[in-house]
Amino acid sequence: MSHQIIISVLFFILACYLGVRVICYLPVRRGWKWLFFLVCLVASENFLIHRLLYLTGQLAAAPQWFSLGLSVAQAFVIVLALLSLAREAVLVLWFIIGRTFFKPRLSDPARARSLWLKRMGWLSLALCGLAVLITGQGVYNAMQLPRVEAVEIRSPHIPPGLDGFKIAQLSDLHVGSGFDASWLKQVVERTNALKPDLIALTGDMLDGRAMQMQAELAPLNALNAPYGVFVIEGNHEYYTSYGDWLRYMESVSAHTLLRNQGVMLTVDGAKLGIAGARDILSDRKRLPPELDALAAALAGADYKILLWHRPKQAELAARAGFDLMLAGHTHGGQFFPGNLLAAIPNKFANGLYNVDGMALYVNPGSCLWGRVPLRLGVQSEITLFTLRSEAGAGERGEE
User: Fold this and answer.
1) All domains of the chain, ordered by start, with CATH?
2) What does the pLDDT average to over 148-164?
3) Residue 8's pLDDT is what?
4) pLDDT, average across residues 136-146
5) What single DSSP character describes residue 164?
6) 229-230-235-238 Cα dihedral, nearest 10 degrees
7) d(C-alpha 225, C-alpha 79), whole Å
8) Which among 72, 121, 249, 360 is least surrounded, fewest beta carbons within 10 Å?
9) DSSP 346-388
């Protein structure tokens, strides 16, 4: 709860900043300025509004049109703030350069101030217009179905029997964050059409109480792969009712939930070990799971895959002896400059990495967190992995 209060305070400060540095300069009447400021203030407090009106911070508790509309407005506030901060940087540079190399043309301070206010007004209006365009493009990108990203994992550790084995990864679906069951059904159909041998869901499946969202989650039951559909938890599974989510997973026979567990599969004579680690929120001290014990449970596997929601401590997975780790959590930053900053708290932001000899893939999210429905420079994706043995014949993929 403390981090939610901090976020609300920060967004309040952000709205006030926009009021002082953008809205007050707009060349419109004062009443319209106040109205615009109030809209930005309400939109910035998306979580608090849901908490007050629906007694929960979860988007799934509110009507879809309300949640999505408020989230889009909040996205506009974020974009406008980023543009305004960029303008501040330019103004500071211009102030430094101007005072150094240029003499002021107007000697009358009152006239110079009037001209400055006029220019700031039109510049602020331009920023608002640009923010509308960028937000519109970002929301449009976010509403599209996830693209299919094909990734080959090549390693001498992959036995010939696994050469061409296909794994589809879905991550961070956040069902209940403004996307309905019909949208999720299309994602499932696109995933099944890839004909993967195995499907992995790497956490943050939903935002809300699972047993109350069975209709929204129902399309996931149609996911189908010969070697199974494996699910792990993310941090969002803990934010409403983890026990409720467990009860839901027990009722879904189509999925296999891996909670610090491993499964051994036999594929064309090769042994494939797949394990799922619990999120650090499962421990009060936020310690990582015992990966060594988890890897030991898969002793004898020719190739070991770990599903772990957060990529930050991938080095621990590599040290435990896993060959491939599939993660999510970061959303790839979703939009600039988040795509550049996502690696700071997570170490790994998006895509394929080599971590001490272990392949790590960070999925940027198959959907997005509904509170910020923006995708700019980072597309949502369904990742299709094909295992390739550098010693194998590569026949399986052509079958």
Assistant:
1) 2-142 (no CATH), 146-398 (3.60.21.10)
2) 95
3) 86
4) 92
5) T
6) 90
7) 40
8) 121
9) HS--SEEEEETTEEEEE---SS--TTS---SS---EEEEEEEE
